[in-house]
């Protein structure tokens, strides 16, 4: 059942309080437990908690500045924002105790909004670099089968490709690792409709494979059609947790929190 959540920040988790140590693993495949993150003094993630079942796709939605990207970056254990309190578990492993490279090695695959294609390297070299260390995910040939455009451009310098092709490469590079949790930050942003449809096809294929995924996307309707569940953030706090269909069907909710 969906929930409109009234969040009260406990005194023990007020700004500046050090993170607590974990006391045993959470039961869900993926869990965030009361995470609080900051850019300097700016308090951007304010007590976010949620669980995800294995194979579930969750759309993390909200207006600009609601804390969506900051939540993804906290899960991926990047330095900014700094997570000062809370626990993050993936397959019973404590991501909150890990640096970003350790979280990646334990199955977190982040496709950032800026894609971070490595200059001067070809498409294939970008993919090969992702597989330098274990654990390896999809083979490069399998990636070319899933992303035929990349196969056609394998020897092309990656940064000279179109924005849509670079987005495909960013997703393929994540899948080149052994991903347990795929984090997609604005995968459709700035892309032509024909490319958006192609990215959607790829993500539908990933969904059929049962890969646990969190997608942040301003095109909320597109994300909701892909997702099983929806979380809505407002000012760094979760205000809705329910099915994707509930958000599609609730125009008042969309207008209040998503302006659509």
From TrEMBL:
Residues 30-260 form the ABC transporter domain. Coiled coil: none annotated. InterPro entries: AAA+_ATPase, ABC_transporter-like_ATP-bd, ABC_transporter-like_CS, BCAA_Transport_ATP-bd_LivF, P-loop_NTPase. One of its GO terms (molecular function) is ATP binding. Belongs to the ABC transporter superfamily. PANTHER family: ABC TRANSPORTER ATP-BINDING PROTEIN (PTHR43820:SF2), HIGH-AFFINITY BRANCHED-CHAIN AMINO ACID TRANSPORT ATP-BINDING PROTEIN LIVF (PTHR43820). This is Branched-chain amino acid transport system ATP-binding protein. It comes from Rhodocyclus tenuis (Rhodospirillum tenue).
């Amino acid at each position: 059942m969906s929930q409109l959540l009234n969040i009260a920040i406990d005194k023990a988790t007020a700004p500046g309080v050090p993170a607590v140590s974990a006391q045993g693993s959470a039961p869900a495949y993926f869990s965030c437990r009361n995470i609080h993150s900051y850019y300097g003094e700016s308090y951007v993630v304010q007590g976010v908690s949620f669980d995800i079942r294995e194979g579930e796709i969750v759309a993390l939605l909200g207006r600009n500045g609601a804390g969506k990207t900051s939540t993804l970056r906290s899960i991926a254990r990047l330095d900014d924002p700094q997570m000062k309190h809370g626990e993050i578990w993936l397959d019973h492993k404590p991501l909150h105790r890990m640096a970003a490279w350790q979280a990646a090695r334990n199955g977190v695959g982040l496709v950032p909004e800026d894609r971070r294609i490595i200059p001067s390297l070809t498409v294939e070299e970008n993919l090969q670099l992702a597989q330098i260390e274990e654990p390896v995910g999809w083979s490069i040939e399998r990636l070319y089968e899933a992303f035929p455009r990349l196969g056609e451009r394998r020897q092309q310098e990656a940064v000279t490709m179109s924005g849509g092709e670079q987005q495909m490469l960013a997703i393929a590079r994540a899948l080149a690792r052994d991903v347990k949790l795929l984090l997609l930050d604005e995968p459709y942003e700035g892309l032509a409709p024909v490319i958006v449809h192609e990215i959607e096809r790829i993500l539908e294929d990933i969904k059929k494979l049962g890969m646990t995924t969190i997608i942040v996307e301003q095109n909320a309707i597109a994300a909701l059609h892909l997702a099983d569940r929806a979380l809505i953030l407002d000012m760094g706090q979760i205000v809705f947790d329910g099915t994707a269909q509930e958000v599609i069907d609730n125009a008042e909710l969309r207008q209040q929190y998503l302006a659509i």
